Amino acid sequence: MVDISKVAITEPLRIIVGASSQSYPGWIQTQENELNLLNRDDWYRSFGDRKIDIILCEHVWEHLTYEEGIEAARICYDFLNSGGYVRCAVPDAFFRNEWYQNIVKVGGPGPLDHPAASHKIVHNYKTLRSVFEEAGFEVKLLEYCDEECKFHYNDWNPEGGYIYRSLRYDHRNKEEELGFVSLVIDAVKNVL
User: Fold this and answer.
1) Which pLDDT does position 120 carry in this prediction?
2) Where are the domains of the chain?
3) Model pTM?
4) How far apart are CA 16 and CA 142, in angstroms?
């Protein structure tokens, strides 16, 4: 169960799903063993009727099948405030870089202890957008490659969910050469 007792009812509730070592002031870290994206009971035990403002997921959704991704998105939708959003980053299937694609491919590049060993899908902007739209979200593309492998960037505020594996923050990206990017979206729950 996630402990939200230290977050005042008047403060925004912002959580990181699958946080690993990610830790940011004002954000609650969660791990799969305490908040499973696919277990609605985990969400009820952790949040009850309290609604979440932002859910941050950096390189989590690729560990779900397409159908599991839709179910996880539906659960997130139900626990978000109106106008809240999921900032989601995943490996980008359209990023033209052989080394990168080998690292992020389904099943990973080798040993079972490699982080990508449990990858079930490599999304492109169309499939990830579809996952969240099926759950009722409006999707804003922040960073992505298109079918021609051209990289697109729409400015986003890191205070609304910091993504390390992104154009601005990943140390592998140089001024004229992209080394590691993510497909980054904001999936917004429409204001009622």
Assistant:
1) 97
2) 14-188
3) 0.94
4) 18
